[in-house]
Amino acid sequence: MATxxxxxxxxxxxxKALEADPKVLIxxxxxxxxxxxxxxxxxxxxxxxxxxVIDTPLAESGIIGTAIGLAIRGYRxxxxxxxxxxxxxxxxxxxxxxxxxxxxxxxxxxLPIVIRxxxxxxIGAVEHHSESPEAYFAHTAGLKxxxxxxxxxxxxxxxxxxxxxxxxxxFEPKRRYWEKGEVDTAASLGDAxxxxxxxxxxxxxxxxxxxxxxxxxxTLDAATAAAEEGRELEVIDLRTLSPMDLxxxxxxxxxxxxxxxxxxxxxxxxxxxxxxxxxxxECFYSLEAPVLRVTGFDTPYPPARIEEEYLPDLDRVLxxxxxxxxx
Amino acid sequence: xxxxxxxxxxxKTAPQENFAKLASETELQFVQLLDPDGRxxxxxxxxxxxxxxxxxxxYRDLVIVRKLDAEATAxxxxxxxGIWASLLGQEAAxxxxxxxxxxxxxxxxxxxxxxxxxxRGIDPIMPLGLFRGVDQGGxxxxxxxxxxxxxxxxAQTLHAxxxxxxxxxxxxxxxxxxxxxxxxxxxxxxSQGDVNEAFVWATVFNAPVVFFxxxxxxxxxxxxxxxxxxxLYHRAAGFGFPGLRVDGNDVLACYAxxxxxxxxxxxxxxxxxxxxxxxxxxxxTTSDDPTRYRIASEVEAWQAKDPIKRLRALLERxxxxxxxxxxxxxxxxxxxxxxxxxxxxxxxxxxxxxxxDHVYPGGSPLLDQQRxxxxxxxxxxxxxx
Lengths: 327, 385
What we know:
The complex is a heterodimer of chains A (about 325) and B (about 375).
Chain A: E1 2-5, H1 6-20, E2 24-28, H2 44-48, E3 53-55, H3 60-72, E4 76-80, H4 91-98, H5 101-104, E5 114-119, H6 134-138, E6 144-147, H7 151-163, E7 168-173, E8 180-183, E9 199-202, E10 207-211, H8 215-228, E11 233-237, E12 240-242, H9 247-256, E13 259-266, H10 271-283, E14 292-296, H11 307-310, H12 314-324
Helix pairs in contact in A: 1-7, 3-4, 8-12
Chain B: H1 3-10, H2 14-23, H3 52-77, H4 91-100, E1 106-108, H5 114-119, H6 128-132, H7 141-144, H8 155-169, E2 181-186, H9 193-204, E3 209-215, E4 218-219, E5 222-223, H10 235-239, E6 243-247, H11 251-266, E7 272-277, H12 296-303, H13 307-317, H14 323-345, H15 365-379
Parallel strand pairs in B: 1-2, 2-3, 3-7, 6-7
Antiparallel strand pairs in B: 4-5
Helix pairs in contact in B: 3-4, 3-13, 3-14, 4-11, 8-9
């Protein structure tokens, strides 16, 4: 066991992946000497060389487009998009090429590409550095989309994402990069919790709360506060945003009768809407209240001085729990 | 105001006029080894030493490629293909560059490279599933050394460059057995960000890739002047690698320049941009009506530069082929066209439930569920599926 931050856990996971398979490449802007703007790839170019840890020209479509060619050639590129708001120039290559190549080839061509995106707000950044674009990718057939929320998951999930032949959009909760937790770096990857599975992080009997990425910490804190008021929240970390693993959510809602979904991304057309629809279809007769969402507002991400008003926080989660009991 | 700025400001309009003149220059500078009348042209740098048999082979390629293309157009007109992107007029650019590829080389086509595909020895039926609507390609690029057709304009130039970076990583450059990559695209694509990014990547990583631009003068309806103010091959200089223009209707010149560029790439000398100056004699696709945006006299002028006519003239002048040969080639082409037609008509429609296949290598429980639900739904109809 080691105590690692989420950032360091991803770094260690990338290191393991580079050691495990010589075809694994890391590519992105400033990922080499600098070790990435968040230092997630710190030290990797020094140890694995600039043929495997590649500082790319500054063009996101180029990063993903050339990664596709490298994958056709048999490599397993792990691309870093520096910030969430910079992924859009690569959107065409991701949606029209990465997502569809296996389908178009009738299964004959696999593109085992991982696209790492630090996402979400809360770091006082200027515009375009705090976005939550996960729904764009989760909506796209052919991509798998995951988000990690803690160091142990970060360490195993990045390795699993690299090992799978599915293209994976890997969302990292950037404002949680410095949060620490225990990571078993000696454990075999095969023993790790499955990549494409959600997970109950805190059992509870009263209200089910689903979150992912940076909102998992917020939700766990809300559950601690709710417990002091006598309400037991069951907290589920979604982990895989596409395809979603909702069976644990259905099981939970059948017991609690109440569901709150929490994400930073805007509510309209967001993943919370999908979860609400699916839970309504599966658990209609168990629901004591409508599924409620706690999300960012349907505005562009606001200036940093008021971002705390935009971001769902502990109080807004508890408010939704209270409202759930109002029905 | 600094001196530099003042000087720039003092020549406000002249450069624009120069650029316009460059882009549409009537006295074309390009590599040509065979003129429109079928006479050999001396070039200070490039030459070919094809045997008569090889020349006849190129002629056969050109004729068959054109015939199969015409057959596909006919199939579309008869409702058997949803759409077809004809290569009519571009046969020399495709056969010349396609025959220049060595077996180990990799090609990244657009959706019009039927002639390159043919020259790679690939069954011409392979891309027709896409146009008939029974699949979206369905082949393994590595098996045929020929990527699936790419419809998003210019996207494949990045794939080619990345693949070429992989070739270099694999240590497959630096000798005669090295591998080279060719990326096909058109004049319209040169305006795409992806193509310009591919140029940047290729040059900074010294990737073994040849950018083969078939400048067929039109991006659907938009003429070259809407894409550029300089000759396209000049663009390469700004990125730091060589660019050249070739008579795209001259199969010998297209072969010669592509062969050299590919060999330079395989020997580790990095990318080259080739602008094959040609003309799209037909419509952009069968859904297009070119009479709305170009005049008949322009098309007629290009008819005089036909790539097949000039090679036939050479073969006749040098007595490298007789009338029996030309008749046999026509018969061969006709036979292959009939064969292609019969096999296109026999292409089976996919089963409705196949739409769920191959979305993910690792599968998806959501899709499993949707497939099951949809299968039950289909089964409720008479006869089911």
